Each structure stands twice: as C-alpha cells, then as structure tokens.
C-alpha cells in the first residue's frame, strides 16, 4: 500500500508514518513545517519506503504528483492548537479550507483515491446544558465570529461537509476522524496543548499554568491508541462515508488534577499558578468546561478499545520531554 500523509512531520502524522512503515507499507509525507518539525521524522529518513517533501499542500502540481502515486491519502495537514489558531487566524482559515479543497479535488480527479481526513472535537463547540459527552450526530453549539477560537471549529466543519459531499455526490471513499485531546511523545506545547506544556513546566520547575479555576475537564488519548483507531478505520469498508470520534473516555480528568498528577509523576515542586482566560488568550475567550468522546460508533464498526491509561500516557510524555525532546 502506498500512503500519502499531509502534515506527516507533525505530531500525529509522524506517528502514523512510523506505524505504516513498520507494517511494511510505503509512506510519502508532505509538510510545510508550520507546526511540524524535521525532528519528528529524522528517524524515518533512512527507511527505504519513506520519502518526504517540505512543501505546502497549496502546491497543486506537486500534490497532483504525490496523490497520483498514492493508493490512499491521510489528510492531516491543518492549522492546529488553540493558541496557534488565535495567533494566526488568516493562515489557519486558508490552510484548513483551501488546502482541503485541493486534496479532495485531486483525490477525486485522479481516480477517487481514498481520503482519511483529520477533524477535531472542536467541531462540537461548547457544552450544552447538562451534556458533556459528544456523539458524532450531536448538534454543534458555537460562539460568535468575534471569538477567533470558533473559526477552527467552523473551518474543520466545512472540511467535513466537503468530504461528505464527495462521498454522497461522487462516491469517493472518505473517512472523517475527530480527534479528542491526543497526546504522546513529540507533541509540542508551543501551540497551546496542555499536557506537553504542564510537563515542560514541571520538569523545569516553573509554575504550572492552570487556566481559570482548573475545574474544566478533558479526556486524554494516547497517540498509540489514536493511530490504531485511524488505521482500523481507513482499512474498513464499513467506515467509508462515516464520521468517527477517536478518543479515550476513560482518561477523564480535571485540569487541576492533571497538573497535580504531572507534578507528582515528574517529581517536581512547581507551584500551580491560576491564570485567567483573558490573560492566557484574550478578552472574551471561551472554553468548553467538559469534553468527553462517545466512541460507541468506533467500537461498533472496528472493535477498537483504547488501551493506554492516563498514567502510562503521561509517563511517555515525561520521558520524551526529559530526554529526547527538551528543546521543543
Ligand atoms: N490549559 C491550561 N493551561 C495551559 C494550556 C491549557 O489550563 O497552559 C487548559 C485549557 O484552558 C483547556 C485544557 O487545558 O481547558 C485543554 O487545553 P488544550 O489547549 O490542550 O486543548 P482543548 O482546549 O482544545 O481541549
């Protein structure tokens, strides 16, 4: 199997590339290194079935060539991270909408190549009263356009509409995967993600920056579980045309408890420092209090069960940031 991974030098993309290579498959990667890094794929460069292109998915002639040579496309290239989206709104919207349109259009015109498209739990938006578990068909509840966080949710929703339209109108095989707070080695905290930020702060003895009251909660998924799920879906004919949550509802924790757990596991004495959302991001920033994936659809279609506990996931991140990856 010949795989193309857009965003393949990113956190999730590089793990996916590694797993597909380990299965003996061919992997080509395209990444413009906006949030990805050469360091993420350095260990893959010597593999004979691996190739990479530092370029943009907006480069249509190159994308034509790469998609033509592939059997399936994992479209992971996107602007990600709450902080990154807020700091780079224009580039984020352009990449997420125009880039996806190029990928889908070429995949269709070059012979209806299968596209597995990364989306996000951000698509759901805010909690509805009394409900914090999100299933694929739930309504989306968003804030105003003046709150830039919601642009990410909207661009990925447009991507989903586009992919689903190719499936319904053209019968091009697509699978949409909504990742919920995926973590593991190689993730950087630079774009806002809480786990690598807290781990780095704990290791260096700096204050751990808990936003707001820290009583908000998330479910964290280990990267190895996320990769298992995405490959199970991409190789399953029953998944085509579907939208799937990928997450681990068991690993549910408040941000306060996460900070304390990381501090303890890292053997750190960092104090917890509470910071208001307006200081951390901007005036009027909105967060969702709780977010938990319903993965019954994923389980039903693929038999997937997440395997990695939050403690084991954190162990991997602490190890990585302490030894391999301290400069991120
Ligand atoms: N968060 C925090 N301190 C940080 C970064 C994030 O308390 O330094 C909080 C953030 O407000 C949110 C949670 O951690 O409630 C998860 O944030 P992240 O940006 O990792 O993911 P998302 O908000 O998309 O779930």
Identify the CATH homologous superfamily: NAD(P)-binding Rossmann-like Domain
Number of helices: 12
Classify the oligomer: single chain
Query: Can you identify the CATH class?
Result: Alpha Beta
Question: Could you explain how this protein is built, in words?
Answer:
The structure is a single chain. With 328 residues, this protein is an alpha/beta fold. Helices cover 41% and strands 19% of the residues. The protein is globular. The model has no long low-confidence stretch (mean pLDDT 95). The structure holds uridine-5'-diphosphate. Uridine-5'-diphosphate (UDP) is lined by residues 82, 181, 192-194, 197, 209-211, 216, 218, 255, 287.
Quick gist of this model?
The protein has 328 residues and is of the alpha/beta class. The chain has helices at residues 11-22, 38-41, 60-68, 82-87, 89-109, 149-170, 194-204, 223-234, 255-265, 277-280, 296-302, 310-324, and strands at residues 2-6, 26-31, 50-54, 72-75, 114-120, 133-134, 174-179, 182-183, 208-211, 217-219, 221-222, 242-246, 252-254, 272-275, 290-293.
